[in-house]
Amino acid sequence: MTRPRTFRELKASGYRPRSVRDEMRDNMIARLRRGGPMFDGVVGYEHTVEPQIANAVLSRHDFILLGLRGQAKTRLLRSLVQFLDEWVPAIEGCPLNSDPFHPLTHHAKVALETHGDDLSLVWLHRDHPGATPRLLADAISAGPWLPGRVGVFAHGERESMKAVRAVVKPRLTDDDQLSLSGYWAYGRTEDVFQAEKREPIGQLGG
According to a count of CB atoms within 10 Å of the terminal CB, is the N or C end of the chain lower? Predict the structure, then answer.
């Protein structure tokens, strides 16, 4: 299958970006129609936990998994990636793999202004580590930005925190609070992650 390689081709194809919640909901519906196991490698939750997760995804709700160690919480959450679209377009060269319809970084915005419809795209598979950092940032972008003082306290995967910062920082005022830090990095051992903290790649930005 040949995928659009420029922004012009992408728009001509009829592609339209969706929120993460809509994307997961549509793919959850398709999975339920096909039948079969919802979460590979998870046994015993078919009539308890799994229907509740399905209902939350279908309703576009947030949810938290609580339980003792070893009860497959992490496995379940990681398995939710399967309900994302298999391939997503991103602006070529953007360090945060910005959606061309919603550029996040300065690099992406300049590239779009410079090249317009001739902007070059790449396609990322949902299992590719570069495809996942923007999930939280996309969810923030899709939600309402309510009036009043804002306090953002987020700590997690390094590239995800970079994407969150790119979305949140421009919206904040001097009275708002922002606390972000990367506690780990996808595909990095702890030693490599700690060493990279001293390099540009390990910085979230000023």
Answer: N
What pLDDT sits at residue 6? 96
Q: For the chain, give every domain's residue range.
A: 1-132, 144-206
CA 101, CA 175: separation in Å to the nearest integer? Answer: 30
CA-closest candidate to residue 94, choices 57, 71, 119, 61: 119
Summarize pLDDT for 81-114 with one digit per residue, the tens. Answer: 889 999 999 999 887 788 999 998 888 999 999 9
Rounded to two decimals, the pTM is: 0.62
Which positions ≥6 away from 101 have C-beta within 8 Å? 16, 17
DSSP-assigned states of every residue in 69-131: TTSSHHHHHHHGGGGS-SEEEEETT-TT--BTTB--SHHHHHHHHHHGGG-BEEEEETTSGGG
